[in-house]
């Protein structure tokens, strides 16, 4: 028992030292990840953080300033702004993560096919170019007007303009890697298409895709907010930062909290995602890591 205790004693200081070293080398990654983890915890445990229903009306207490019961005040319907902002983070984070995952997966498949098969490159990439020529805002608004307001349709509307960007990134990487000597050597040695793809080409796309996915998530959160602000996003009964600001903008001088607080949360979330993306880029860049050692 004494031997085990003695051997386990240095574990905690060693773990703390490793954690401090990682933080010192990757401060942006740690800061951005910590902020996002906090926002994610608030979204998950929203019912425990606030005791008010975000859609419950209380016209007697409408347009109240910040109080102990309502730290962000109330809106024109008497709804608790703090509760609506916390629940609204669920929509923003879900849309951001979903769009990043779906756009990255579909764009990866299209980019790999375009980089390896010539006719796919000629046909499919021209379609991707056509999609990129359409302003993403107009494309999303048009889709929402046809499909109707729902979170699922928002995810689809924002995902469609992001797919061409991912596919072009992957296509460029694949076409560059195909010319590398180690790939040419594998082809000369008789490597089949599938092993060549999984062992040599696909691993080179992972790091850039991870970084790109973080920027897609940040862009998607903003896109969801302005779609909801314009009335083409989430339905009114689902609180999101965009429609909270849209409802409160006409009464900004009376109840500024309905505009300021969701805007602050939106800005902090997007900033955290971008900071984490920068940290991931530095972390996954071998040259940057050699410079930190």
TrEMBL record:
Superkingdom assignment: Bacteria
A cellular component term, taken from the record's GO annotations: plasma membrane
Residue ranges crossing the lipid bilayer per the database entry: 29-49, 91-117, 137-160, 251-273
Signal peptide per UniProt: none
Alphabetical GO biological process terms: transmembrane transport
Family: Belongs to the binding-protein-dependent transport system permease family.
The protein's name: Peptide ABC transporter permease
